[in-house]
């Protein structure tokens, strides 16, 4: 049986995801870091003025949980305000984007399920 594993954002390397501006993403849990994992879990930070431009994930559901900051999410043309304590589900194949509102970094937990093939 697999054992648990702890990841610390402060000890993790970040990546700058494509189709994003002013963004750092910390991929923490995935099949690469946890063999057998059936999802990906990231912490993502989009700085003031930053965006996650329109994107589509044809094979993966996407979930977002807002930790801090505010952003306007757009899913298939419908705008939704994301602020601390809000969760958003984006089904596979849906167009989605984010635009940071105000002067605070938008910090979110992000899940892809199943994990992307990378």
What does this molecule look like?
It is built from no helices and 8 strands. By secondary structure, the protein is an all-beta fold. The chain has a single domain (18-113), classed as Jelly Rolls (Sandwich), CATH 2.60.120.10.
SSE topology sketch:
Elements: E1 20-29, E2 40-55, E3 61-68, E4 70-75, E5 78-82, E6 87-90, E7 96-101, E8 106-113
Antiparallel strand pairs: 1-2, 2-7, 2-8, 3-6, 3-8, 4-5, 4-7
H/E series, N to C? Answer: EEEEEEEE
**Roughly what percent helix?**
under 10%
Number of domains: 1
Count up the helices.
Answer: 0
Overall number of strands = 8
Average pLDDT over all residues: 96
Any idea of the CATH class? Mainly Beta
CATH architecture title: Sandwich
What structural category arises from helix and sheet content? mainly beta
Low-pLDDT regions: none
> In angstroms, what separates the terminal alpha carbons?
25 Å
CA-based gyration radius = 14 Å
**What is the 3D form?**
globular
Determine the CATH superfamily: Jelly Rolls
The percentage of residues in β strands lies in over 45%
Main beta sheet, described? Answer: 8 strands, antiparallel
The CATH topology turns out to be Jelly Rolls
Distinctive features:
118 residues, mainly beta, Jelly Rolls, 8 strands, 0% helix
């Amino acid at each position: 049986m697999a054992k648990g594993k702890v990841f610390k954002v402060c000890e993790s390397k970040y990546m700058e995801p494509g189709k994003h501006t002013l963004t750092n993403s910390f991929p923490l849990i995935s099949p690469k870091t946890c063999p057998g994992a059936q999802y990906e879990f990231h912490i993502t930070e989009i700085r003031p003025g930053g965006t996650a431009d329109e994107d589509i994930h044809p094979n993966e559901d996407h979930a977002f949980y807002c930790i801090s900051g505010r952003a306007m999410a757009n899913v298939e043309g419908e705008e939704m305000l994301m602020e601390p304590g809000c969760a958003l589900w984006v089904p596979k194949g849906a167009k989605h984007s984010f635009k940071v509102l105000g002067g605070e970094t938008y910090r979110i937990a992000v899940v892809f399920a199943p994990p992307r093939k990378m």
